[in-house]
Design goal:
The complex is a heterodimer of chains A (about 140) and B (about 220). In chain A, a hairpin with a 2-residue loop joins strand 1 and strand 2 (about 55). Chain A has helices at about 5-25, 40-45, 55-75, 75-80, 80-110, 115-140, and strands at about 50, 55. Chain A is built from 6 helices and 2 strands; from the N terminus they run H-H-E-E-H-H-H-H. Chain A has about 140 residues and is mostly helical. Chain B has about 220 residues and is an alpha+beta fold. Chain B has one domain (about 55-220): Glutaredoxin (3-Layer(aba) Sandwich). Chain B is about 55% helix and about 10% strand. Chain B is built from 10 helices and 5 strands; from the N terminus they run ααββαβααααααββα. Chain B has a 5-stranded mixed sheet with strand order 1-3-2-4-5, with helices on both faces. In chain B, helix 4 (about 110-125) runs parallel beside helix 7, helix 4 (about 110-125) packs across helix 8 and helix 5 (about 130-135) crosses helix 7. Classes of the chains: A mainly alpha (about 140), B alpha+beta (about 220). At the A-B interface, helix 1 and helix 2 of A face helix 1 and helix 8 of B.
Chain lengths: ~140, ~220
């Protein structure tokens, strides 16, 4: 499996995690599978919205975009392109920074940890790492 | 036989992972119809602003009684079904007492917060007291149920609430903070069990019979 394939699977997993949290916020999932109660505290906090939009919805949209771009990068016409990977790296970098902001809110403002949010954070960092490795591989290949 | 290409293998794996994820989400959506009202909710100032409890009776009533109760507590049910009708008809509706009901869900009662939230959603439609009566009357049915939410939902039709509005309110869990705020207020007031009544600044724990409440009210404000 290539780095891009690994990144695509990671983005897919992230999409499902954020979709799960979004469905919970929409009331489609009665009980959130969390165990600690921290997920509910975080999800029901006013800080679970960013600029009026549910953070879970932003996550689902973001992962869907990253997934679509990563799948596109696997197509033969984009396979040798570093440009698309640079765009994905830029977007993923932004997502990692946004995730760091959300972790700060969880730890220091809400004082509760949502396991699903932690899973999403691990996935986005993993995705970013794979994309950076792919970017390095392309640059080594072209020089 | 030729080996499948790496791309084909990847797409097959990807499809399996996607199907598993979709299956998980569908399973979660069908698993339970009953939401959970969180215990560890952060009470925001907006949750309790302007809310003193569910109030019944005249603003000019001489005596105010604050009841702290848990919908799943059998003693609260006993008071609600046996004593409350007399109290309501003879003391509240006659203008002598203003009754304030406050939530005090106990941690050992699985459905207490959900019941409190159901009643809060009924209150949004102006039918708190009717819904509360229905919830207490059906307590033996839902208390040991695995899905009390269905019984709470059935009372919506019985009381004549708008089902869609009530459903949306329940899904939002918007009163979770207010319920916790009410419980916090009770703890600050010195409440330790349910039902508890605050009458004339004193706390009376346990079921108070109508006669006892009337005597207390008479002592604070003699009957005309």
């Amino acid at each position: 499996m290539t780095l891009r394939m690994g990144a695509a699977v990671t983005a897919l997993a992230g999409l499902f995690v954020s979709a799960y949290l979004w469905l919970y916020k929409l009331g489609a999932i009665g009980t959130i599978a969390c165990g600690t109660g921290g997920c509910e505290t975080v999800q029901l906090s006013p800080l679970s919205r960013f600029l009026g939009v549910e953070v879970a919805a932003i996550g689902a949209g973001g992962y869907a975009l990253l997934l679509a771009l990563t799948l596109a990068s696997l197509q033969p016409r984009w396979a040798g392109s570093g440009r698309l990977i640079e765009i994905i790296a830029l977007l993923a970098g932004g997502a990692v920074l946004f995730t760091l902001y959300l972790k700060y809110l969880e730890f220091f403002v809400i004082h509760a940890i949502c396991r699903w949010c932690v899973a999403s954070a691990v996935l986005i960092v993993g995705f970013f790492t794979l994309i950076l490795l792919e970017l390095r591989r392309i640059r080594r290949h072209t020089t | 036989m030729a080996e499948p290409s790496p791309m084909k293998r990847f797409y097959a794996l990807f499809a399996v992972a996607a199907a598993a994820g979709i299956g998980f989400l569908i399973w979660q959506m069908n698993r339970a119809s009953t939401p959970t009202v969180p215990v560890q909710v952060t009470v925001q100032p907006g949750d309790t602003a302007g809310f003193r409890g569910y109030t019944l009776g005249s603003d000019s009533a001489a005596v105010e009684v604050v009841e702290y109760a848990d919908y799943q507590c059998p003693a609260c049910q006993q008071f609600a079904t046996v004593e409350w009708p007399y109290v309501r008809d003879r003391l509240v509706q006659t203008g002598r007492v203003r009754w304030v009901f406050r939530d005090f869900p106990l941690s050992q009662h699985q459905w207490a917060r959900l019941a409190a939230h159901s009643a809060a959603c009924a209150n949004e439609q102006g039918k708190f007291w009717e819904y509360q009566d229905a919830i207490f009357a059906t307590q033996p049915d839902w208390s040991a149920s695995r899905d009390a939410g269905k019984i709470f939902r059935a009372q919506v039709e019985r009381v004549g609430l708008d089902g869609a509005g009530w459903d949306a309110c329940m899904s939002s869990l918007r009163f979770a903070g207010r319920i916790q705020g009410s419980a916090d207020e009770g703890i600050r007031a010195g409440v330790g069990s349910t039902p508890s009544f605050v009458i004339g600044g004193r706390i009376y724990a346990g079921v108070l019979p109508y006669d006892r409440i009337k005597a207390l009210v008479d002592s604070l404000s003699p009957a005309p």
